[in-house]
Amino acid sequence: MEPGAWGNRTAVTEFILLGLTENIRLKPILFAVFLLAYVVTVGGNISILAAIFVEPKLHTPMYYFLGNLSLLDIGCITVTVPPMLACLLAHQCRVPYAGCISQLFFFHLLVGVDCHLLTAMAYDRYLAICQPLTYSTCMSCEVQGALVGICCTVSLINALTHTVAVSVLHFCGPNVVNHFYCDLPPLFQLSCSSIHLNGQLLFVGATFMGVVPMILISVSYAHVAAAVLRIRSAKGRKKAFSTCGSHLTVVCIFCGTGFFNYMRLGSVSASDKDKGIGILNTILSPMLNPVIYSLRNPDVQGTLKRVLMGKRSPT
């Protein structure tokens, strides 16, 4: 929009989210589906946290990271899904400007920590399989805390940068966001001022938050694969490949969709395809993580059974 037109328009104080659909008949069905997905995701991740807390055998670096991942998944889906459910029940989904910016900040904060935590988990698997003799030293409690701290710090800087950069943009109308939550690309399309700097920041952020972790994860698992192939025991190889395969599945879903969403800024306008990618990032990935990472593990399954039945852990 031309700057000269600003004088005839008022600043936007709220955004209208179009949501997943405008079909009135479809909204109750989507509400039930995503409410179930939310309950299953939160319940599954809380179960993982409970199992890790009560089972001494799970007090290991791998499950320390998995516990943090479960917390992040609960936070990530809570930032997006409850507001989306409220919008499905409303005639028109109106979100205050401050609420939209806050959702954007927390979403990018949690997703960023999630992505870097997956990198820390890949490094943990590399040390456990490729450097078993020094694993306990290299992955001490201090190192675990430092890795999580670094993940949080890098993501906080990234989220703050994008939030501040968006907050200084001028929104003078229209105020209709073709998405089910507030995110950077759809907001850029509504800006009356230049988004050149924002686009550059998004590209740099996507590189450090997506591309670099993907490279580090790939290198870690390349070393792991080479080490696993040298294992003589077929059972040992199967167990190692199963664990690493689960990790890589989550990485491909999570980082791959994020990379596609943010690295193609300006190529196409907002569409239903973006909403599908958003569902993969905000709902499907957090819902699958407990199943892929932990609930298939016999130790976790046994612990959950004991917790549900009120039995104590065997000594």
TrEMBL record:
Signal peptide interval: none
Keywords, alphabetical: Cell membrane, G-protein coupled receptor, Glycoprotein, Membrane, Olfaction, Receptor, Sensory transduction, Transducer, Transmembrane, Transmembrane helix
Transmembrane segments: 29-53, 65-89, 101-123, 201-229, 241-263
GO cellular component labels: plasma membrane
GO molecular function: G protein-coupled receptor activity; olfactory receptor activity
Major place of residence: membrane
Membrane topology label: Multi-pass membrane protein
Source domain of life: Eukaryota
InterPro entries to which the protein is assigned, alphabetical: GPCR_Rhodpsn, GPCR_Rhodpsn_7TM, Olfact_rcpt
PANTHER family per record: OLFACTORY RECEPTOR
Family: Belongs to the G-protein coupled receptor 1 family.
Name of the protein this chain belongs to: Olfactory receptor
